[in-house]
Amino acid sequence: MTSSRFEGDFTLQEPLPPEAIAAAVEVMRSGRLHRYNTAPGEMSEAARLEREFADWQGARYCLATGSGGQALQIALRAAGVGPAEPVLTNAFTLAPVPGAIHAVGAVPVLVEITDALVIDLDDLAAKAARSGARVLLLSLMRGHLPDMDRLMDLAGRLGLRVIEDCAHTMGATWAGRKSGSFGLAGCFSTQTYKHLNSGEGGLLVTDDAELAARAVILSGSYMMYDRHGAAPPPEAFAAARTEMPNTSARMDNLRAAVLRPQLRRLDANIARWNARHARVVAELRRVNAITLPMTPPAAQPVGSSVQFRLPGIGPEAARRFLERTAARGVTLAWFGVPAPEGFTSTHRNWGHVPAQALPRTDAILATLFDMRLPLSFSEEDCTLIGRIIAEEAAAVAGSGAPA
Predict the structure, then answer these.
(1) CA distance 108 to 354
(2) Comparing 18-260 with 265-398, is the CATH topology the same?
(3) Which end of the chain is more exposed for a tag (fewer CB within 10 A), N or C?
(4) How many other C-beta atoms can be found within 10 angstroms of the C-beta atom of residue 355?
């Protein structure tokens, strides 16, 4: 084993591009930060972002929101989800997903996952029948795509409307079709650790005019919905304009201004992420103790993070592994940790969600490790990171922990 150490910072993102900084300065000079504070005939930065993202995504309508979580909440409420209603979602996800369900007064029904870290379609069918749920909030957690053809066929047979949580799959595709375009709506995040960075922010896309109108009013448009860049025609708002409450979930022009230049670079950045992901994975594949989730041939993820398992590893060995990688500069999260840490939590930590038996998911999470790959790392950095993980996994496995 080498004694090499990685000296990078896993929290450090790339700087915003110069044109994003210039756009932000221009908005600040104007003082027009609120999305509806426009001069006559002017299209706001938020409205421009909506139009540009809709075009990039291939969607009819787009709504810019204050966060990805708000986009999820608005999509659920616009879809008619109400208090005490069961909503299906993956057991392996992050807290904002069940949080969005809880926020609209509904009850999360958690579905088991497979070794590929995606929703288990057999368990989905069983729980849909048992719960009577009408909606699936599909979390494409950490960018892993299930068989979307099978899933949508099953949803059609079960009468389920699908809302896609695409926080980790902006630009990912299934058989050439972008995530977020399969269900009733797709919801994206522009939080700092996602594929576009505005600190916080969200985007909701849909081809459904009624849902889009309801979502725009919910976001807090007052009666200024005609100032949106990718909204349905005025007649779609006839009922929504007075029926929907105002939840003040708007994106402001400052965030939209820094996102628009990043969107123009996104396709190139997706290729950069995938090249870095491939470097890490190539090193991990050298060690028998490590198991990587299978990616179906039809799936093209965005490799902004890496997940792997050490099957059979116990809690003490897992902690030792984390200590050893951290000592060499590599920051990992472990989904088997008993208490939530940082951004990582599991269904066992969500006190607002009714306790549910999920033995298969729990067995997978007990041996699952996770790591971000910011674009501030070079490809050579990623090779070193992968090598460090592989060496320490081999060392822990060889020191008595089952591999």
Answers:
(1) 8
(2) no
(3) N
(4) 10
Q: What amino acid is encoded at 387 in this protein?
A: R
The structure tokens 């915003």 sit at: 16
CATH of 265-398, picked from 3.90.1150.10, 3.10.129.10, 3.30.465.10, 3.40.50.720, is: 3.90.1150.10
Cross-strand partners of 63: 204
pLDDT digits (tens, 9 = 90+) for 312-324: 999 999 999 999 9
Q: Which two tokens stand for residue 245?
A: 């409450």
Q: Identify the CATH assignment for 18-260 out of 3.40.50.150, 3.40.50.880, 3.40.640.10, 3.20.20.150.
A: 3.40.640.10
Distance separating alpha carbons of residues 205 and 226, to the nearest angstrom: 17
- Cβ–Cβ under 8 Å, residues 151 and 121: yes
CB contact at 8 A, 102 and 243: no
Q: What angle do CA 301, 304, 305 make, to 5 degrees?
A: 100
- 235-283 tens-digit pLDDT: 999 999 999 999 999 999 999 999 999 999 999 999 999 999 999 999 9
Beta pairing class for 61-65 and 107-111: unpaired
As given in the structure block, the two tokens for residue 94 are 């992050």
- Cα separation, 86 vs 106, whole angstroms: 6
